[in-house]
From TrEMBL:
The keyword Ribonucleoprotein does not apply. Pfam families: TPR_19 (PF14559), TPR_8 (PF13181). TPR repeats lie at residues 197-230. Keywords: TPR repeat. This is Tetratricopeptide TPR_2 repeat-containing protein.
Length: 259
């Protein structure tokens, strides 16, 4: 997938309606779960994460980051600011800190307000979410990824890839009050787009994760049939067929996986 294909969003007006009217009908327990989750994200912000990240840097890396920060502070135009922010985002990503990289990608998106810039910000936070283990920082990354994807789809609500990837954020960080949310979103997308290989690939991946190998094979076979360039589908099919004891098919897809 391209970086753009990692973006997702819900139309802003619908989101506001859900927030306004949905909360009124939720049971107190659900409200408590949502409040706890919200506070978790709020208690960790960039003013906490950035100093901690800088404290962990080697002296030469810290010097480069601080030089870029000083350069950014001197800029007076949005174009110049974006140029320096891209360098900061790239530097932090190369330092294996996708959360801080995502912070700067988000600043770029706030200046440009384009579908692609919000998509890249969402992608970066989503990658951070996959790599993190600390639940507080994961919640921070998930909330930022969700917001970025929502902004991307508000600009282009017809882009299916955004909706797929919003669902993936929810599968990677399931809401406590609705742990099936991401899976249900993907199923709904599959119902309305039954021959979309990207959706089938993600559903197949989720089936593999829960050891539903026969269901995974069904979805992945269809995805690979629709798009033979999906090498990832071939690799997962090799693993799924091995788990089902079908060595012949496992070997066949393993060869495709290595191509």
């Amino acid at each position: 997938m391209t970086k753009l294909q990692y973006a997702v969003i819900t139309v802003a007006v619908l989101l506001l309606l859900v927030l306004r009217f949905g909360c009124e009908t939720k049971a107190p327990k659900m409200k408590g779960l949502e409040k706890s989750r919200s506070l978790l994200a709020q208690n960790t912000d960039i003013n906490v994460l950035l100093p901690a990240a800088k404290d962990s840097l080697a002296a030469n890396d810290l010097a480069l980051v601080e030089a870029l920060e000083e350069e950014f502070a001197r800029q007076t135009t949005d174009t110049a600011k974006v140029t320096v922010l891209k360098r900061l985002a790239g530097e932090w990503y190369s330092l294996n800190n996708a959360v801080i990289s995502g912070h700067y990608a988000q600043q770029i998106a706030e200046l440009l307000n384009t579908e692609e810039s919000w998509s890249i910000a969402g992608t970066t936070f989503a990658l951070a979410l996959q790599r993190l283990s600390d639940p507080v920082v994961r919640e921070f990354a998930a909330s930022r990824a969700t917001k970025a994807f929502e902004n991307a789809i508000s600009i282009n609500p017809d882009e299916l890839a955004h909706k797929i990837n919003l669902a993936l954020v929810y599968t990677d960080n399931p809401p406590q009050d609705n742990p099936m949310k991401g899976i249900l979103m993907l199923r709904e997308l599959n119902d309305s787009n039954p021959d979309n290989p990207a959706i089938l690939l993600q559903l197949g991946r989720l089936a593999m994760r829960t050891n539903q190998l026969e269901r995974a094979v069904e979805r992945l076979e269809r995805a690979f049939q629709l798009d033979p360039s999906l090498i990832e589908a071939a690799c997962m099919l090799a693993e799924a067929y091995a788990g089902l004891g079908n060595k012949e098919k496992s070997d066949s897809f393993a060869q495709k996986c290595e191509q």
